[in-house]
Amino acid sequence: MDAGKESEPTAMKNRTTVERTSEREIVVTRSFNAPARIVFQAWTTPELFKQWWVPKSMGMSLLSCEMDVRTGGKYVLVFAFDGAKPTAFHGRYIEVTPCSRIVWTNDESDNGSVTTVTFEEKGGQTLLVLHELYPSKEAFEAEHGMEDAMGETFEQLDALLVSLGASVGRS
Amino acid sequence: MVQYSSARLDASFAALSDATRRGVLEQLGRADASITDLAVKFHMTLTGMKKHVGVLEQAGLVTTEKVGRVRTCKLGPLRLDDETAWMERYRQVWDARFDELDRIVEQLKRKEKVDGRRKRE
Description:
The complex is a heterodimer of chains A (171) and B (121).
Chain A: E1 17-22, E2 25-32, H1 36-44, H2 46-52, E3 60-67, E4 74-81, E5 87-97, E6 101-105, E7 114-122, E8 125-133, H3 137-143, H4 152-170
Antiparallel strand pairs in A: 1-2, 2-8, 3-4, 4-5, 5-6, 6-7, 7-8
Chain B: H1 2-16, H2 19-30, E1 33-34, H3 35-41, H4 46-58, E2 62-67, E3 70-75, H5 78-120
Helix pairs in contact in B: 1-4, 3-4
C-alpha cells in the first residue's frame, strides 16, 4: 500500500455504530471520507462490491455476484461457507436513487428483511445509514439466530451454570 | 461495548471462582431466597453472605430487591448481556465490511484524482 507523497495523512478510522431501533429493526451507521457518488459506485458495481462485501474474517467467500442495481432489478449472491455447500442469496431492488438511496428485499425466506441504505453527503464526507426492517420481532430473532446465538463465551458461561445446576440435581 | 462485555465476563468468572457463590447460584436457580435464608443455608454470618451476594450482584449474575426489611435475591438478567454480545458481534461484521469498503473508496478517490490530472494535462 503506497499512499504516495501527495495524499493526505491517513484519517482516523471512522466508527461503525449499531442500534436496535425497534423490535424488528436494526440500524447501522458509518461515515466515509469521500463523496456519496464514490461510495455509491463502490456499492453498486459488482466487481467492486465483490471486493468488500465479504471480509476474510467472516470465514466465507463470495463465489459470484449478479447485480442489476436499478428499481425493479434483481440480485443473486452465491456464498461459499467453510466446508458447506454454496448458498445463494437473492432479492429485488425496490428503489434505487443514484448516489443517495438503495432499497432491496432479501427473499431467501419469509423472514427476510427489507434493507434500506442511504448515502448522505456533507462537506465531502458521506454518512451511510443502513436499516434492516423485518416483518416481525420473531422474524428478526429467527434471522439473526438470536434464540441460540449468544456470544460464545456467554454460551460457555451458561453451560457452566447448567452443569452446576445438574450436579446439584444429582446430589 | 467490547470493553464492557469483557469486564463483565471477568467479573462473572471471578464471581464463579468461589464454591459458596456457586452454591448460592444453584440455590437461586431453584428458588429466590432472602439473604438471611442463604446465610442459614450456608452456615454463614449475615455479613459474610451479604459480601458474597454483593460480588454476584456486581457480576450481574444475581439481582436483589428489598421489600420491607427483607432483601430477596434472584438470578440476574443474563439475557440482557446476550443481546449486548450479539449486537457487538453484528457490529463487528459490519465494521470489518466497511473497513474493506473504505479501502475500495480510497482506491476510487485516488484513481479519480489521477484521471482528473491526466485530463487536465
